[in-house]
Amino acid sequence: MLASVAMPAAAETTVVRTQAEYANAAKRLRPGDTIVLANGEWRDFQIVFTGQGAADKPITLTAETKGKVFITGQSNLRLGGRHLVVSGLVFREGHSPTEEVIAFRRDSKTPASDSRLTEVVIDGFNPPSRTKEDRWVSLYGERNRIDHSHFEGKANAGVTLAVIRNEPRADNHRIDHNYFGPRPVLGSNGGETIRIGTSDESLSDSSTIVERNIFEGCDGEVEIVSVKSGGNIVRGNLFLASQGALVLRHGNGNLVERNVFLGKGKANTGGIRVINRDQIVRGNYIEGTRGVSFLSAVALMNGVPNSKINRYHQVADAVIANNSLIDVARVTWGAGADAERSAPPIDTRIADNLIVGADGKDPVRVETDLSGVTFAGNVNAAERSVKLERGANGLLYPTDPALAGIGAPHDLVVVKRAEVGAAWYGPAPEAAFGSGRTIAVPAGGSIAKAAAKAESGDTLALAKGDFRLAAPVAVADQLTITGAGAATRLLPAGDAFSITGGGGLRLANLSIAGGANAIAVEPSATANYAVELADVQVSGLSGDVLKTAAGTMARRVAIGDSRFAGIAGAVVAGAAETGGKGTYSADRVTIADSRFENVGMVADLLRKGTDESTTGPTFAMTGSTVTASGKGGASVRLSGVQTTSITGNRFVRSGPIAVTHSVGTPSTAITGNRFAATPAPRIEELHYRGPDRARITNNIMENAQ
């Protein structure tokens, strides 16, 4: 008699070409099975991928060819079960119809555990509104891994990648070898790149590892990586020219080691901010950062006595050792000290760190009582000579053998671009102004038609003569329009230009006469945009020169060598955001060598609220003349602006400069200006009650009012 032996079913690989075929294949998945999505576009595809694989036989969802399967439109991906692997997909040209693009759970009862997301790309997958909040990846379950993936261009509110902790247990996730590419300034809280937990469950350990990733141009807000749980390891990552810091915001017993921060001299680049108990920060290398206060190379925070769970717990039993802080603008002990944050660090050791300030200055600032901190073996180049040379790893080290044990370890290995992300994916960089073709437009020709045919980076070269604009010229790409000086006149019936989508506009060597707004930003401008005016004359407007819109963000407004006369509104109207959550409409505004006569205001910038998650706006004005302007109350009105520099200008018969400090530690300098028949600058402090913070010096008052 022959025995009957049941044999396990062989693993199957199924290629699917339609959503219906996928749904059918997904119903019968077994350990070791693979579903292959055929190359091409999969539009409006809400993928549900569930199953029970095994450690040695995972269930896989992959692309026919990695990088050739595009998930577009209103699409997302939900995983549920165990031992699942997803690879090779590209999410672009769309957005999720839910609050997550990729979720490691099918629903609240079906998380994914022991699963992996690898070589997956999410690039610019944003909803139509910048204010709509979503997350690109949400980690639920336990022991999941995200590796060798590429995340770039998240422009709307919400964390790029979040560990969601619904229970006070260890998550044991791993996030490694990913590329987190440019994330533009959000202009409010909620622009983190990685967040591990929230304050609610922060007193338990997540035990998540963030290792060997690159964060490049991650400028969303002041917290690039926001740790809000305990027992995590952040190790061996590279933070490259990113505005913000790695922040131990909530939770205890975290380890931050062997990371490299290269600020490249970029404004608001930071390092590591330390809060809470039992934190270890060791062996990190930080060079070329320009952040101060919360964005210092190292910021040791003051805490709140008996703090609520969502505020600032006192630093205790921290170790900050063997870190190299080179060419840094600031190192702050007791950052954030104020009437509320009055608890200084205690039982803390700061040892064997190398500190070299930018421009040879001492970067260390002490803002609290340090009697609870032990300092040992630290070397500050402001106090003794330190010669540095670059090692084989490209990092700077002291040449003196006696200092071999000071600062970051010599065997530190900087993660390379080739080690992270999807090797097969390289998005095209955004076109710069003037980087494309030059298209001639004859006098009387249609600028609108030429703009519609132009590609991003192109230049429209207008001939001498008049150009009548019956309707606004829509600008949806990076467009430059140049003329032949004042002989090239634009005569709009209403608004001259409207910025939509991902548009940006540079105007040079031309004039605009009459109309409503010279440039109006539409709410549909979801990407951060830039506006540049160079040698431009604008006159006779019933509105503004640049009119911003709520929910949009100008990453840069630059005005130079230009003239404005008879403007009813503001030249830069950046007060569109009126909510109290710290949002604002323009991040960086610079004005140089320009003239303003009879304008409502030169600039009107507003950032309301007291949220401390952003670094802007920034305003600079130099070498300009303002005449008979701002008679309604102010010639320049800046409220909530974080960095202000107004120097070397002349104000004649105009309203005053009005500055309101509402949040943070703003830097305001009004120096070397001449005020003729113009009131002195006004500074208002909404909350701060200490000595004067604004620097108003070397100004000349003539016939002061």
Strand proportion, as a percent range, falls in 35-45%
What structural category characterises the helix and strand content? mainly beta
Distance from N terminus to C terminus (CA atoms, Å) equals: 114 Å
**The CATH fourth-level homologous superfamily of the largest domain:** Single-stranded right-handed beta-helix, Pectin lyase-like
Overall average pLDDT: 96
Number of strands: 69
CATH architecture grouping of the largest domain: 3 Solenoid
Rg, Cα atoms, Å: 28 Å
Q: Please outline the major beta sheet.
A: 26 strands, parallel
Task: Indicate the topology.
Elements lengths: L12 E4 L2 H8 L7 E4 L2 E4 L2 E7 L6 E5 L5 E6 L1 E7 L1 E4 L1 E7 L4 E4 L1 E3 L2 E4 L2 E3 L2 E3 L11 E5 L5 E3 L2 E3 L8 E3 L10 E3 L2 E2 L13 E3 L12 E3 L2 E3 L6 E6 L4 E3 L2 E3 L3 E7 L4 E3 L2 E3 L6 E6 L5 E3 L2 E3 L10 E4 L17 E3 L2 E5 L2 E5 L12 E4 L2 E4 L6 E3 L6 E4 L2 E2 L7 E3 L5 E3 L39 E4 L5 H7 L5 E4 L2 E5 L3 E3 L2 E5 L5 E5 L4 E3 L4 E10 L5 E3 L7 E13 L4 E2 L6 E7 L2 E12 L13 E5 L2 E12 L11 E5 L2 E3 L8 E4 L3 E5 L2 E3 L4 E5 L5 E5 L2 E3 L5 E4 L9 E3 L2 E3 L3
Parallel strand pairs: 1-2, 2-5, 3-6, 4-7, 5-8, 6-9, 7-10, 7-12, 8-13, 9-14, 10-15, 13-16, 14-17, 15-18, 16-19, 17-20, 18-21, 19-22, 20-23, 21-24, 22-25, 23-26, 24-27, 25-28, 26-29, 27-30, 28-31, 29-32, 30-33, 31-34, 32-35, 33-36, 34-37, 35-38, 36-39, 37-40, 38-41, 44-45, 45-48, 46-49, ...
Antiparallel strand pairs: 11-12, 42-43
